[in-house]
Amino acid sequence: MWETIWNQFVRISDFIFLTMRKELFIFLTVFLFILIIYLVIKPIIRLLIALEWELFLSFFIAIILSVFILQRLPVMIEKEYLIYTIVAFSIYIAIRRSVALLKKD
């Protein structure tokens, strides 16, 4: 049973290695790039969580996801307006955080 599954796996991997070299190289390169970024960012995020910077993490992830999604929209948004919007959002978050800190005291 397991030997048959293993033989099929080896057969499929041989086929992929022989016929899709370029695609496999691109896949492995991107995979390694993502893995390296993950390993670099993970300790930074642990530190930010330990410092209780949830607001900063939320802000950072929201900006990155927004830029990523907006780049894929068929409507072309000029970069100047995107930067203005990010600055305005940053000011909003800073004011909101300041008010929360002032209320805490």
Compute the number of helices: 4
Order of helices and strands: HHHH
Beta-strand level of the residues, as a percent range? under 5%
Number of structurally distinct domains: 2
Largest sheet: none
Radius of gyration: 23 Å
Number of strands: 0
Question: What are the low-pLDDT stretches, counting only 5+ consecutive residues below 50?
Answer: none
Helicity range: over 70%
The shape, in one word, is elongated
Average pLDDT figure: 78
Q: Between the first and last Cα atoms, what is the distance in angstroms?
A: 68 Å
Descriptive keywords:
mainly alpha; transmembrane; 4 helices; 105 residues; 0% strand
Could you characterize the architecture of this molecule?
The chain has 105 residues and is mainly α. The protein folds into 2 domains: 1-52, no CATH class; 53-105. The protein has 4 helices and no strands. α3 runs antiparallel to α4 (79-104). The N and C termini lie far apart (68 Å). The model has no long low-confidence stretch (mean pLDDT 78).
